[in-house]
Structure to design on (141 residues):
């Protein structure tokens, strides 16, 4: 079971709680995320509700930006261990059936224009609640 030092866990939990709804722009998504789009979309946007992550790279892409550069984090960027903790907590949520499932999918919006391709993700509250629960457990220890 992954853990974090109490101070690190508290810092991350405070940052997440201060954000409210968490929506992220992902500029560098792995090919496995882009391969989810079928057909030749050249402009507009496509919204998918993912019920499973295609591979490890996709899981990291979906979860690595869960904490934005909030004032609490300005002096300290997320460490590899902190990012790994968040990815592991997200995997737990998927295995427990509380994220990336039919009831609580991951919403991914693919934006297309002639010269720009980007993805934004909206994290479901079920995932955020699970990550916060795990962070609170670490902070209490």
């Amino acid at each position: 079971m992954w853990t974090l030092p109490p101070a690190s866990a508290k810092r991350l939990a405070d940052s997440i709680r201060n954000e409210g709804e968490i929506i992220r722009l992902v500029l560098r998504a792995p090919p496995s995320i882009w391969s989810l789009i079928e057909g030749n979309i050249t402009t507009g946007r496509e919204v998918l509700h993912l019920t499973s992550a295609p591979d490890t790279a996709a899981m990291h892409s979906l979860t690595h930006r869960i904490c934005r550069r909030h004032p609490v984090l300005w002096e300290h960027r997320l460490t590899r261990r902190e990012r790994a903790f968040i990815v592991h907590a997200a995997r737990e949520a998927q295995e427990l059936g509380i994220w990336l499932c039919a009831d609580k999918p991951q919403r991914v919006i693919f934006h297309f224009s002639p010269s720009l391709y980007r993805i934004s993700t909206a994290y479901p509250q079920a995932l955020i609640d699970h990550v916060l629960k795990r962070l609170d457990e670490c902070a209490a220890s």
Summary: The first strand starts at residue 23 and ends at 26. The chain has one domain: 6-140. The helical segments are 6-19, 31-34, 56-63, 80-95, 125-140. The chain has five helices and four strands.
